[in-house]
Design a protein that fits this description.
heterodimer, A: mainly alpha, 3 helical TM bundles of succinate and fumarate reductases, 4 helices, B: mainly alpha, about 80% helix
Chain lengths: ~130, ~120
């Protein structure tokens, strides 16, 4: 029988650092996006079911909790996207130096925040422009 | 007398030599999701507050229906790959790992089938 040793990821032995926070955030946003995709599936199914079911989904998405969920989904998507591109560069052996990895991490994080703000700004503009 | 060969105890414990496929699959789907997820976000923005008629008509156009089906297929595939890695990292008992992975596959395939069917229904009726 194997001896019970701490298996990966044993977070408690590491000193917290920025690149590690982003790595964990990549995983957290990935799982959140999975739940978000289920929400997308619900929206599509509601539309396919009929106007009544769609009204329920629309009311939830338009509500304050619904908007918070959607806001988190937008940030999760942009962060996972930007950080995912960072991962793809690493796969080609680029940007692995400590200094570069830290800097690209900041770029990915800030880009996600900026893109989220821009997306919501545009979303509100569209909604106010559309006939409800 | 033991008829059991050492192979019996070794089987299933080493590399199955399929790891590279999983690795490539995750990278390829990530690459495909770059344009697809940008398209999705832009679409969701344009659909903010959309009525049922507007939303159904939007999904029903060939370009949007195909893009949505591609997005759903690739996103759920990528999600499955990601969940597998997370499960392998945190669930260490073999049978629990298998059960968790099977349950996650069921959930992902069910969500993919439901959403894919919804898109087809909106596009084809």
């Amino acid at each position: 029988m194997p001896t019970p040793r701490p298996l990966s990821p044993h977070l408690q032995v590491y000193r917290w650092q920025w690149t590690m926070v982003l790595s964990i955030l990549h995983r957290v946003t990935g799982i959140s996006l999975g739940l978000g995709t289920v929400l997308l599936a619900w929206w599509l199914l509601a539309a396919a079911t009929g106007p009544g079911a769609f009204a329920v989904a629309r009311a939830f998405i338009g509500s304050i909790p619904g908007r918070l969920v959607l806001l988190s989904f937008t940030f999760a998507l942009f962060f996972h996207l930007a950080n995912g591109v960072r991962h793809l560069f690493w796969d080609f052996g680029m940007g692995l130096e400590r200094h570069t990895a830290r800097r690209s991490g900041w770029i990915a994080f800030l880009a996600a925040i900026v893109l989220t703000v821009v997306a919501w700004e545009l979303g509100y503009l569209m909604r106010d422009g559309a006939a409800l | 007398m033991r008829f059991r060969s050492p192979l019996r105890t070794a089987r299933g414990l080493g590399s199955a030599r399929h790891g590279v496929n999983a690795w490539w699959g995750q990278r390829a789907s990530a690459l495909a999701l770059v344009p697809l997820s940008i398209w999705l976000t832009a679409s969701l923005i344009s659909l903010a507050g959309a009525t049922h008629a507007h939303f159904s008509a939007w999904v029903g156009t060939p370009v949007n229906a195909v893009a949505m089906l591609l997005l759903l297929g690739v996103a759920f595939y990528h999600l499955k790959g990601g969940l597998d890695v997370v499960i392998e990292d945190y669930v260490h008992t073999e049978w629990r790992k298998r059960m968790t992975r099977t349950a996650s596959t069921f959930a992902v395939v069910a969500a993919a089938a439901a959403s894919g069917f919804a898109v087809l229904k909106l596009a084809l009726t």
